[in-house]
Amino acid sequence: MKIVHENFLLKRGDFHESEIFKTILSEIRTAISHVSWPENEQTFSIRPERMGNGVKPIKNKFIKHLINHGWKDEIRLSLVKEVGSGPIDAIKNTDAGIFAVEWETGNISSSHRALNKIAMGILQDNIIGGILILPVWNLAQYLTDRIGNYEELKPYFPLYDFLKSEKGLLLVISVDYDDTSSSVPLIPKGKDGNSKGK
Questions:
Q1: What does DSSP say about strands 72-77 and 86-94: parallel, antiparallel, or unpaired?
Q2: C-alpha closest to that of 91 among 130, 133, 119
C-alpha cells in the first residue's frame, strides 16, 4: 500500500522535531508499506468492484508491524473528559506522552469523530498527538459503502487551525492501492449486522 498525502492539521511545540516523533512516523510509514492484498503478497492489489471489498482486514499487517515495534493495539482509553473510554487502534507510550493512531473503517461521520477525539485528547493533555489514516476516493470506491475518505474530509481541515493548544500534533495520512487486478479475491466483509459488510 502506498501513502498519497500527509497533512499536518496541528503542529505545536517542538514534538514534531523530536527523535521520538521521527521514530513514530517512520514506523507508521513502514507499517503502511507492509499492508498487502492478498496478504501473502508484497503489494496491495484490489479487485475493482464498486463497494465490493471489506475494510477491516486491510489494517491487519499494519497493526501487526506496530505491535512488533512496541505499540499496543485495541487499548481502551478515554481521550475526552466525560466521554467513556473506547478502543484505540494502536497507541505508543513515549517519554513525551501517549501517541494514538486510528485506521478508518467507518463512514465519514466516524472520520470526523476520530479526528475530533484525537484533537480533544491533545487539548485536554491526555495524549501528545495522533494520526488518522484513511483511503483516498480512488481506493474507497472499491470498499464497503460510504467508507470515510480523504476527499470528503479535507474541506474541514482548516477548522483545526483554530485549536488553542501550545503543544501537540495531529496528522492525517491518506492511502491508496498499488494496483488493481480482476484475479485477486475480494477482501472479506464483516458478518455482524451493524457493519454493513465492513
A1: antiparallel
A2: 130
